[in-house]
Amino acid sequence: MKPARSRKKFERPYTWAQLHNGDWSRESIQTRLDEWCPKLFGYHMLKLGGLSSEISSCTCNIQHQVNLDIQNPLHNVIADGYNLPFLEKSFDVVVFSHQLDYSNDPHRLLREVDRVMMDDGYIIITGFNPFSLIGLASLMPWRKKSLPWSGRMYTPSRVKDWLGVLNYEVIHCDTYALFPMSKYRAIWTWLENGLGGCASFAGSQYFIVARKRTYPLKPIKPHWHLKRRFSPVGASFRTHSRRTLSSAKTSYPIKTEKAD
To answer: Homologous superfamily of 17-212 in CATH?
Structure first.
């Protein structure tokens, strides 16, 4: 397994129009995000990257939403994802769409996002699956320099391991789009539904929802205590006095002298 950190600088897309079948990918993520928006609560939401900024979250209960990117015109804040200009524990939800695929240091990017996350906050991550048709297409030499194949794809299980190290609980993981074709989509969807869950591991995209868990450093002591065995005070006192007298007789013998 290759290390996640790379010296190569990947071209990061800032709009879905740059990706092959980008509009279809955005619509598929939008459908799944709409199902989760009513379940998200808090005060602040961060959409990291231009792709995340173009995904609508108007049905979410969180009113204050920040779009962070450098090139996308929908941004509210212009900054780099490796150095977020926010205080610690500032956001309740972070939408993280296809940012790991084009990052030369995904561990650093996740740690920076974890720094601004509130306790029990939600992080939503999407990306491309290397064990899929899109992943196999990236092996072709004439596609390695074009989007979306020019990035680095990670398996959903590897992303979940990274989240586990940062104390995140993965509460939902969906791998879908076995056939990532926009034409004749009804036929491909029918064929994918016919295969069922046996081929879900080969889906082209994954949708992960994880929640940050914070455990107390000091363990909480139990309220219950073991009861001592009952013993009468008089009996124990008599036993203790007898042992004391016997030890005194043996330890300090009395010397007697005969009278003349």
So the answer is: Vaccinia Virus protein VP39 (3.40.50.150)
